Amino acid sequence: MSKQNQLDTLHHAAICVKDVREAVAWYTERFHCDVEYQDDTWAMLAFDNVRLAFVLAAQHPPHLAILGDPAAFGEPKIHRDGARSVYMKDPDGNNVEILALAPETAPAAKS
Amino acid sequence: MSKQNQLDTLHHAAICVKDVREAVAWYTERFHCDVEYQDDTWAMLAFDNVRLAFVLAAQHPPHLAILGDPAAFGEPKIHRDGARSVYMKDPDGNNVEILALAPETAPAAKS
User: What is the ipTM of this complex?
Assistant: First the structure.
């Protein structure tokens, strides 16, 4: 809830996969999307309006990441790239990440 | 893959909930988003860049809906509102819906 009278932005939806490389191949063969990041443990694809992340269940839960002020929801975790986030669960146990991008990368959030 | 050289659009991500009303309340109390549709069996929230749907597991699987030509992926199902879609599974069993909105509602896809 970073700005009044403006809808919040979903930065990415993260789904679980067993093989990141295979998932990236499947989606990029069928859809127009850019691979923003990929290694053996996770990947981030950019669609026109939002990002799709692939995560390994052993490392990250599936989640929805919404841009906002994580400190308003708990004690933020500081990521290596300077981003801050808090994870919480909705009433059904779905994981929601409140994410503040690092200042130098924040403008990319609108791409 | 509706247009060359343009990234595809994720229309909505649908997650499973047990109580649609409770889920809508939880998200709208915490985030700036508009309730586009809501009944006892599903709901659609609009964020700034994408939609978030709540579905009952008994009625719909969780899924990602990507705008495109469903006929390129299978035999489309025609919805009551004129939308057409095909469901398929990625290699990990995640459900992906290829969705073509009804002509009269298509412009709303960009909101």
Answer: 0.88
- B42 CB near a chain A CB, below 8 Å? no
Q: A6 — contact with chain B (CB < 8 Å)? A: yes
B12 phi, psi to nearest 5 deg: -155, 155
Residue located via tokens 């700036």: B32
A17 close to B92: Cβ distance less than 8 angstroms: yes
Neighbours of A58 (CB within 10 A): 8
d(CA B5, CA B28): 35
Q: Tell me if A90 and B27 make a contact (CB, 8 A cut-off).
A: yes
The residues that bridge with A96 in the sheet, in sequence order, are: A64, A88
Probe site for chain B from A2, A8, A29 (most B CB atoms < 10 A): A8
Structure-token pair, residue B92: 């990990």
pLDDT tens over chain B, length 111 residues:
445 579 999 999 999 999 999 999 999 999 999 999 999 999 999 999 999 999 999 999 999 999 999 999 999 999 988 999 999 999 999 999 999 999 875 555 444
